[in-house]
Amino acid sequence: MDNPSGPGTENKTLPQAGNPPVVSSSTSPPAVAPPQSKPPVASGAIKKPKQDKPPEHDLGIWRISRRNFFSLAGWAAFFVFLATSTIGTLRMMFPRILYEPPSAFKAGFPQDYIVGEVSEKYKDDYRVWIIRDSEGFYALSAICTHLGCTPRWLEAENKFKCPCHGSGFRRSGINFEGPAPRPLERLRIALADDGQILIDRNIKFLFENGDWVKPEAFLKYS
Length: 222
Ligand code: FES
Fold this sequence. Notes:
Number of strands: 11
Distance between the termini: 167 Å
CATH class of the domain at 104-220: Mainly Beta
CATH topology of the domain at 104-220: Rieske Iron-sulfur Protein
Radius of gyration: 57 Å
Bound molecules: FE2/S2 (inorganic) cluster
Helix content: 10-25%
Number of helices: 2
Shape: elongated
């Protein structure tokens, strides 16, 4: 419908009692916010879009959080405990035992020995010399009474000589030179049931105690 008031005139609604006047703005321009001034951009300084750079020391999968660290430490302690327990158990199954030759051994038949001989046949294995004289046998311990070295039998000099500090012992075992404080020890010697010479290194006879005259310190044989 045409506006009876003519073109260009504003549509005004007459105020009614109790209503505030309403102004129609069909022809008035809308309110526009004033343009904001942009900061000047320096020529040549073109900003590049930011890119996500990896951190300088990025450890990737090896980055460990504190929680993971304690978890790993716990597992490591558990495996260390398991390993030490296993090793200990295995060690128990294989104890360190020093296998020594038996203290008593058979040394063959009396007729195997020559009168006047100092036999070194059992020196390496048992540290024992077996000496036969005109009346029988005796066994000497091949342990120096100074500090326990093994003396040598010197046939030409008819004596035992200790290489450590020079102690000398006669064929009988009596000490006569060097620092050895006492004679060599004699060992139990007897005949076994089968007729062989039986020597027991656990039973010793000491000259200084008068033991050499005891029956088992000497085996009579002729
Ligand atoms: S150990 Fe034999 S002389 Fe010292």
